Amino acid sequence: MHPPQAQRLRDVLRCIAIPSFLYLLIVCLLVSATVGCGKQPTGNAPVPVKVTVLAPEEIVVSTRFSGSVEPLQSTDLAFKLPGTVSRLYQPPGLDRDVQVGDTLAKGTVIAEIDEGDLRRAKASAAARVAQLEARTATAKENLEIATRNFERYANAVGGAVSKEARDNVDSKRIAAAGELETAEHALAEARIQLDQASDDYVNRQLIVPFDHATVAEKHIEPGERKAAHELAFRLIDISTVHINFGVPDTMIGRPAIEMSALQRIFLGQQLPITADAFEGRTLTATITKIAPEADSKTRTFLTQLTLSNQEIAPGQPLLRPGMIVSVRVGGQLDRKVMLLPMAAIHQGASPDELMVYELAVESGRDVVRAKKVSLGGVYNNQVEVLPDGSQVQAGSKIVITTAERLADGMAVRLMQDNTDSAATLAVFDPEAQTRREAKRA
Fold first, then answer.
1. Which domain holds residue 382?
2. What is the value of pTM for the model shown?
């Protein structure tokens, strides 16, 4: 269509009762068509494109939880009775008392109070028991003698023994039995007192109750007066540690979908843990406890992992109570894939065929070549390119944006980073277009 024809058509349209905005729209479309028809082809000018290098990227589908490290066991040590601290344990080869951080074996006497009063109380109780044992033995002999006399008088023939004499012997027998009973009761009470004195004597010492006991707290010094049940030490076992974290109810139970099972927890399951404290290392722990009910505040189920604590140096464990670690559930789903923006995917020759344009250098110039691709899942507006069935691989340069429709073998040029995106469309301005057409006329 030539410009004079367009002018005549505009004159006709002005004679028809058409709203001004519709008239303007039609004129603009016709002018565009006229200009387009008269536009000369640009030849083989390269098409500006942007590309990306296809490379494996890690996608994270697993769930991460923050867990806290707790000791395998802990205990508070305190004396059962008051006393003055006489000595503390000194580690072999060290000229000092036990201190925080020392690790002790089971049965180690870690502290002791003065034994003077306790030893004397124990000796007095033992003497009292010995005295009452002798008294009880004498009472038994007296009862035996009184019993024999009573039997002899009771078996006398005729009037050889008067009734008064028999009554007198019987009263002595009863008195001897009462004395024996009193002595036995006193002896039993004395033995209890001796047991108590012996326990007090033993309890003058604080003894480590389990192996691998590390001193976490120390509140005692030699010569100090300690009250009964006043805290002296707190011991922990961190040769093996627990890791506690909470999980929602959606991760407990048997799922209906097999893939969801990888994001569930169960007893005996092994999970990887990481932490900033040991960056670059991944440890494996086993689930040993799942709470039967949810926490009333967080509505999560307490889950406990257990693992052996490694040593980074002699006496220096890797994990310490209070550390925060990251627990990953469903790590099997995390993997490396090659991703492309959806805009880089094009329809192939057939409806079930998809392709991308790969940048190539031929005869010293950049061109694009159509390559078939096989796609997987979609992750955040990006699609996975599967190695099997795809004609591209890691390292391929794939066109991701362009302003024109590409074709196989078309020459292209790479856009600079500061260049506006080739996918940006120009805004149509009808008034400006009319002014340009008027100048041409």
1. 47-58+335-414
2. 0.63
